[in-house]
Amino acid sequence: MIKKLIRSILGKNKKSASSTEPTVLGPKQHGIDPQLVSPNAIRVTQTLQEAGFKAFIVGGAVRDLLLAVKPKDFDVATNATPEQVKQLFRRAFIIGRRFQIVHVMFGQELIEVTTFRGASADSAPKDEHGRVLRDNTFGEQHEDAVRRDFTINAMYYDPATQSVLDYHGGIADIRAKTLRIIGVPEARYREDPVRMLRVVRFAAKLSFTIDAATSAPIAVMAPLINNVPAARVFDEMLKLLMSGHALACLQQLRKEGLHHGLLPLLDVVLEQPLGEKFVTLALANTDARIKQGKPVSPGFLFASLLWHQVLEKWHAYQAAGEYPIPALHLAADDVLNAQTEKLALQRKIASDMRDIWAMQPRFERRVGKAPYKLLEHLRLRAGYDFLLLRCASGEIDAELGQWWTDFMQADGAGREALLARKPTESSSAAAPAKKRKRRGGRRKPDAAAPDAES
Ligand code: ATP
Ligand code: MG
What we know:
Helix 15 runs antiparallel to helix 16, helix 16 (298-319) crosses helix 18 and helix 17 (324-343) packs antiparallel against helix 18. The protein is elongated. The chain has helices at residues 2-17, 27-30, 39-50, 60-66, 82-88, 141-147, 170-175, 185-191, 194-206, 212-215, 218-221, 230-241, 246-255, 264-270, 276-291, 298-319, 324-343, 347-359, 370-375, 380-392, 398-409, 412-420, 433-438, and strands at residues 23-25, 55-58, 74-78, 92-96, 100-106, 109-115, 155-158, 163-166, 178-179, 209-210. The strands form two sheets. Strands 1-8-7-2-3-6-5-4 form an eight-stranded mixed sheet. Strands 9-10 form a two-stranded parallel sheet. It contains 23 helices and ten strands. The protein is of the alpha+beta class. The protein has three domains: 11-176, Beta Polymerase, domain 2 (2-Layer Sandwich), CATH 3.30.460; 183-262, Hydrophobic Seed Protein (Orthogonal Bundle); 266-420, cca-adding enzyme, domain 2 (Orthogonal Bundle), CATH 1.10.3090.10. Bound molecules: adenosine-5'-triphosphate (ATP) and magnesium ion. Adenosine-5'-triphosphate (ATP) binds at residues 59-60, 72, 75, 148-149, 153-154, 192, 194-195, 239.
């Protein structure tokens, strides 16, 4: 019954899914500004074409060019095999991830060159849920187009003739600001469930509407993401969070029913009322930094996303009798262990997160040499930014953040004066929030635990 239904939908979509002749648009019709095209990408297409191959800029770069946005990187598609590509460039490396591709390097810039893929996904090895595990068959350009994810990502630009080849109505969808998957949505999500996360990222990033048929199966098929290797989901999550539209992306994930029960991180982030303000601020901060071209550290980002979970466990361990510092480390262990299982947090990121969290109680020690020692901490800046976020979200008294801002800027005498100033009492974060409120900020004797820092 379901098969029959899918076949009938397939039949209906046949025209667009098997279109072998593209619509060709000239510069006047597509309006791409050649200034936005990377000279190195042009060099790659030109070299390939001079060697007798077809070569086009493809994918996200063409989409962005059509939207008059400077692409962040350039991909090239060609009918040359990876070996043939490699021979044409001095610094070219074949790398074999899910698909074999060639990295052509020009200084810092990397152009990814892929050989047109064939359409034979039927024979490709799959897991028991239908996810395609490997598929390296080469094919014709129109077959390559049909295997791409969305209509707006399946256009080819030839810098030599300045023409755009559009196989699946991508131009119309760009103009209508519509995100539409190529082919039968259910089948495409089954082949590669990560496409569900990509829909969300592109919709949020481009402010596009998701076509109804593209969006409809997502809520039901969302659990398929569980079968995707954790490292790949992590990569996609990172892209999502670092897209400059992280807040919009998370809201969209929730709207599409993608957050619930499948990515433990998102369950935590989107369903903790206490941490919502903190997470919102952290993501707004990240988005602003990305838009200003400033670097963002994944460690800081994930430390922020998971902070309120750490905080909750930190308080629980203290309530159970642990001293504050060991309690914080236990809480960090719990949270990191729970996440690494599914999210494949890389070791470096996890250690950055732990550093940022572990520094927090140290900011409360405003006596003797302790603040000077903290100034030497390699990750002071991240820890301090994190402290300011906690202040801004209302979790701790803003006075503590201000004190550290002053201390970091002051000269020697200024620092001594600040140390001599008695801190106001309400800024302790080490004790559980409830107790802090009731006791008017008085610390438990062990809550300050000045020498317990690891
Ligand atoms: P970004 O701006 O994030 O780089 P992008 O569209 O270039 O967006 P990439 O991940 O760089 O995204 O992929 C390049 C192209 O490869 C896409 O535009 C699309 O045509 C194709 N592609 C990438 N991932 C998939 C996928 N999971 N399924 C089908 N096609 C894909
Ligand atoms: Mg790209």
